[in-house]
Amino acid sequence: MCYVRLDPDEIPARGRELSASEWIRLGEQAVDAETLSLTITGGEPLMHPQFPEIYEALTEMGFFITLQTNLSLLDGKLMDLIAERPPRAVKSTLYGATEETYEKVCGVKNGLQMVRRGIENVKHAKIPLVLVSTVIRENQEELNAIHQLAADYGFPLAHTHNVMNTKRNGNEKNILSSRILFEDLTEKEKKEARIKPHQIIRTPLDGCGNYKNGGYWILWNGHLSLCAHMDLDYTPLNITGEGKPEGIASYFHRMLDDLDRKYPVGCCDSCEASRYCSTCPAVLYADNTVPGEGKCLTAQRMMECARKNC
What we know:
This protein has 310 residues and is α/β, with parallel strands linked by helices. The protein has 12 helices and 7 strands. The protein has helices at 20-32, 51-59, 76-84, 99-106, 111-124, 143-152, 172-178, 187-192, 209-213, 248-262, 281-287, 297-309, and strands at residues 37-40, 64-68, 89-93, 129-134, 157-160, 217-218, 224-225. Helix 1 (20-32) packs parallel to helix 2 (51-59). The two termini are 35 Å apart. The model has no long low-confidence stretch (mean pLDDT 86).
């Protein structure tokens, strides 16, 4: 996945993949923190060599589990495991409607064939399947075909153009070159774009569902964060052997306090885009910008679109 993928020689500088026992300890901390819903995601979580052990333990803890996977590995023993212990839902992204596009986007041959097999296996197991797609330059011509592919299996599909920058690896140039921006649209497409005013945003936290609904992420290296796009370096699990971890609940509340100080109510009041903007802390983190300085890239783009269409 573009936001988190690292080559093997890049990993030691960022951390390491957690073991099954460490993920299970974090699951136990999540129970202690009264977490109800749990999403297992990645990257591709099924690639973890100890995934069966992790999944079995988490399903014993009482969470409402959603499994996010690209579906390519949902076959054989792994599919048997998921069918035996079904999650509340499986969620997956369709990257294209042809093998050529799948190879272009994912760098994998026969990717669509493997995904089709996964869809059929999930459907046969009667597990709810949620399909989404992200529109980028490499697959934009197949958007209608992607929707039709989902419909052929009897599933709706939601798509987005929202592709964020990343500070997690060296893929910034590749990500930005794939992103479709408002200024790249044709004049006809610009006229058809609909950017509508909404309630005035007073802080980037207003647009963050995790902040408002008590959500959090545990990243691949064991850090607690607001979402997948930010590494805030809170460490609820002691993986270095130094010091004593405070646990998920303590770090979660510390994170909220730190965010309230960084993005106080009113910090977006002077921005003319506050009635159109959807900037969140992750966007600011990725673009190295601060609200109120007039440099927020998303706000600038929203205003350009709003001036032409609203």
